[in-house]
Structure formats: structure tokens, C-alpha cells
């Protein structure tokens, strides 16, 4: 099934997602469809809210759509900053906020706790692009977009650009 990725300002992107209660065949299919939609859009991460599903499910592959060698499907992911690891500022974009990128400050290292589609626990420390990507995707589960992390001025300029593009 071909999924449509929602774009800002769709209000469904602001909903807080509910925990996944059980891994079902339908959830497995949704995860596979999400991965395909992410690759098709040249992304490295996609959260269920971005396709209109308010559940705690994300797919991430920082190797990108060409390699497709690092796909992680994470159910009910939780992140905690690694104490003393500091922060990083990187340029981010989002499949739900097309044609806009901005620098965002994130934790340099995070601990990921989740389950995979087989119910196995996932527990690992992440840094670099993976840590940034995970923080970005888990934010989606809380109804937060990367533009919610940028300065008021940058946000105002983005909103003006968006209004002009939408003909308002």
C-alpha cells in the first residue's frame, strides 16, 4: 500500500501518540509500508503520526534510501540523554516539512529503549546521525516538529514563506 506523508500544518502532526499494545500482522504491514514510504521520499526516518497513525512506531535507516542496509523498526521507543554527553547542533529537515531545513540543538548521545517487531527488547546508546534522527522521530510521537525547536524569528520567517506558497 502506498502511504501519503502528511505535511505541516496538518493538525494530525500535533497529536500525542498512544503506545502500541500488541504487534499484529497489520502493524507489521504498516511498518513495512512506512519503510517503503520513507525510502521513496528519500528520508532516513518516519514516524507513524506522519502518515496519520497516532501510535508509537517509528522506522529509521540512516544508511539512506540507496543503501537500505540499516533499517530499524522501533515499537514504543523511549530516549534518555546520556549524562555528560553534551549537545550537538545539526541541520535538520523533515518529510512533513518539505523544502525547509534549519539548525536544531539535540543531545549528543541518547539511550534508546524500545521493542522490535518480534517483541525483543532494544537497548542501546546512540550518537551521531542516529541519535539526532531518533530524537527527531520520537519528537513526532509527542506531536513536536523540528520547527518547534527553532527560534521565534526563524519560525516566523518559515510561516511567512509557507503562507505565500499556499497562496494566503
Description:
The chain is α+β, with helices and mostly antiparallel strands and 168 residues long. The chain has a single domain, classed as Peptide Deformylase. Helices cover 29% and strands 30% of the residues. It is built from 4 helices and 7 strands. It is globular and about 45 Å long.
SSE layout:
Blueprint: H1 25-40, E1 45-47, E2 57-60, H2 64-67, E3 72-81, E4 87-94, E5 97-107, E6 109-115, E7 121-127, H3 128-141, H4 152-165
Antiparallel strand pairs: 1-2, 2-3, 3-6, 4-5, 6-7
Terminus-to-terminus distance: 33 Å
Indicate the CATH class: Alpha Beta
Number of distinct beta strands: 7
Q: Provide a count of the helices.
A: 4
Query: What would you call the structural class?
Result: alpha+beta
Quick overview:
This protein has 168 residues and is of the alpha+beta class. It has helices at 25-40, 64-67, 128-141, 152-165; strands at 45-47, 57-60, 72-81, 87-94, 97-107, 109-115, 121-127.
List keywords for this structure.
Peptide Deformylase; five-stranded antiparallel sheet; 168 residues; alpha+beta; globular; two-stranded antiparallel sheet; 4 helices
Amino acid at each position: 500500500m502506498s502511504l501519503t506523508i502528511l505535511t505541516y500544518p496538518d493538525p494530525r502532526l500535533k497529536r500525542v501518540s498512544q503506545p502500541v499494545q500488541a504487534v499484529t500482522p497489520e502493524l507489521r504491514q504498516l511498518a513495512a509500508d512506512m519503510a517503503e514510504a520513507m525510502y521513496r521520499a528519500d528520508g532516513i526516518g518516519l514516524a507513524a503520526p506522519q502518515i496519520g497513525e497516532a501510535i508509537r512506531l517509528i522506522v529509521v535507516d540512516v544508511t539512506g534510501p540507496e543503501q537500505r542496509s540499516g533499517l530499524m523498526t522501533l515499537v514504543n521507543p523511549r530516549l534518555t540523554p546520556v549524562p555528560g554527553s553534551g549537545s550537538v547542533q545539526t541541520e535538520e529537515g523533515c518529510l512533513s516539512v518539505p523544502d525547509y531545513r534549519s539548525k536544531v540543538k539535540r543531545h549528543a548521545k541518547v539511550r534508546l529503549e524500545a521493542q522490535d517487531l518480534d517483541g525483543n527488547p532494544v537497548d542501546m546508546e546512540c550518537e551521531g546521525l542516529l541519535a539526532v534522527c531518533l530524537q527527531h522521530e520520537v519528537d513526532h510521537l509527542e506531536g513536536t516538529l523540528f520547527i518547534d525547536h527553532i527560534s521565534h524569528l526563524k519560525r516566523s520567517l518559515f510561516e511567512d514563506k509557507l503562507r505565500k506558497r499556499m497562496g494566503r
